Amino acid sequence: MEKLGIFSRKRDWNVRKLVKEAEKRNIECSIFPLTELVVKLGNEPKVLCQDSSLGEFDTLVVRSTPLGSAEQIVFRMDVLHRLENLEVKTFNPSGAIEKCADKFYACSLLEDEGIPVPRTVVAEKREDARKAFRELGDVVIKPLFGSGGTGMVRVDNEDMAYRVFSAIDFGDSIFYIQEFVPHGKKDIRAFVLDGEVLASMERIGKTWKTNLVRGAEAQPYDLPPEMEEASIKASEVQGCEYAGIDIIESDDGFYLVEVNAIPGWKGLQSTCDVEITKEIMDYLEE
Fold first, then answer.
1. Three-class SS of residue 146?
2. Domain CATH number, residue 24
3. 192 vs 244: CA distance, rounded Å
4. Is 205:185 a contact under the CB 8 Å cutoff?
5. Is residue 185 helix, strand or coil?
6. What pLDDT does residue 147 have?
7. For residue range 99-140, what is the model confidence (pLDDT) as tens digits?
8. Cα gap 146→260, rounded to integer Å
């Protein structure tokens, strides 16, 4: 690999580690915003970003997918598909990013493969959402798209359900309602690369939300064989070449709650001896 491109809004820790590792290997590395793409049909170069021809890159690593209008988001994904058609490798593949971005679709694929997920109801009408709340009781309301725990609300009484559902209804949004599974303010993140679990950690939160960006602490965790198998299968089902698999344990077993196609590894790296960035770059150079 001679030229590596990274799609990212900012030079966060993960991006800086990738750039540094690329420099060690004498790989030319450039960072691009996914919001400044230009594509051409019947003319060259086919795909541009900040006047650079993306068709000249060996690999493009997608490290962020910015919010935008429906047209903007569809266009950006179309461009990633176009780049793949032009034989430029995207990491993760565009199809995997699309699947994992949609919580409902991603979880439905897991269930279809026999991977345990929490009971979930997705609907457009408020009355259907109210029925789901009465059925499930204690629930977590999530945005269909999003990460880092942003927009997630736990609802366990009728008054709160009324207020939250009214706000969602007013915004013409989808009701994504998932049964709250008691998990002791802890969850597990497994990092899968090329069909293997590279490392895993336990995250201990200050509240029921266990995201590191929300103050949770990370510690080493030895993944049991059944969780390892489910994590690898989950990554494969979504078409991911690497993925962050989020798992919660309860008294009646474990559940996979999310597959992240753009996983960070800063917190995980602090809990293990595996050089995750090196492993990623080794994989990309194969």
1. coil
2. 3.40.50.20
3. 6
4. yes
5. coil
6. 61
7. 999 999 999 999 999 999 999 999 999 999 999 999 998 999
8. 10
Pair 28, 104 in one domain: no
CATH number at residue 162: 3.30.1490.20
Residues 104 and 233 in one domain: yes
The pLDDT confidence band at residue 15, using thresholds 50, 70 and 90, is very high
Say whether both 27 and 74 belong to one domain.
Answer: yes
Domain extent for 79: 3-91
Q: How far is CA 204 from the centre of its chain?
A: 20
Rounded Cα–Cα distance for residues 283 and 25 (Å): 13
**Residue found by looking up tokens 């629930």 in the block:** 139
How does the average pLDDT of the chain come out, rounded? 94
Are 63 and 172 within one domain? no
Are 244 and 106 found together in one domain?
yes
pTM of the full structure: 0.92
* Kind plus residue range of the DSSP H or E element containing 106: helix 103-112
Spatial separation of the C-alpha atoms in residues 221 and 215, rounded to whole Å: 18
67-76, 187-196, 277-286: the lowest-pLDDT one: 67-76
How much is the pLDDT for 149? 57
Tokens linked to 101: 């971005």
DSSP code at position 270: T
Side by side, the strands of the sheet bearing 52-53 are 37-39, 47-49, 52-53
At 71, the amino acid letter reads: E
Report the half-sphere exposure of 146 (CA within 13 A, side-chain side): 11
- Are the C-beta atoms of residues 184 and 194 closer than 8 Å to each other? no
pLDDT reported for residue 148: 59
